[in-house]
Amino acid sequence: MAGAARDTGTTQVLTGFIPIGPLADTLPAIVANRDRHGHTLAEHLRDWDKAIWPHCPRGYFALKKEIPALLKLLA
User: Fold this and answer.
1) Among candidate residues 4, 41, 43, 2, the one with its CA nearest the CA of residue 20
2) Using one digit for the tens of pLDDT, what is the confidence trace for 14-63?
């Protein structure tokens, strides 16, 4: 990230929200690297994701029953 940001003159990198998974596991190292190079890492969480995320404690099947109500709410 640091090399690409430096090469383009960028000081901030924007990414989608990274809640879990291999990338989330490496996020502390990415942030440490970012700090050494003076870059900012900004995570963006869409309104759609904010509304749906609380209904996903155990994956898709917990969410499945909420989909009709969420579609009405977010449409």
Assistant:
1) 43
2) 888 888 889 889 888 888 877 777 778 888 988 888 888 888 887 778 78
Residue 68 · residue 55 · CB < 8 Å: no
- Structure tokens of 58? 């155990």
Domain ranges of the chain: 1-44, 46-75
Distances (CA, A) of 51 to 1, 5, 15, 22, 40: 30, 32, 19, 23, 26
For the CA atoms of 61, 23, 16, 56, the dihedral, rounded to the nearest 10 degrees, stands at 20
At 33, list the tokens.
């690297």
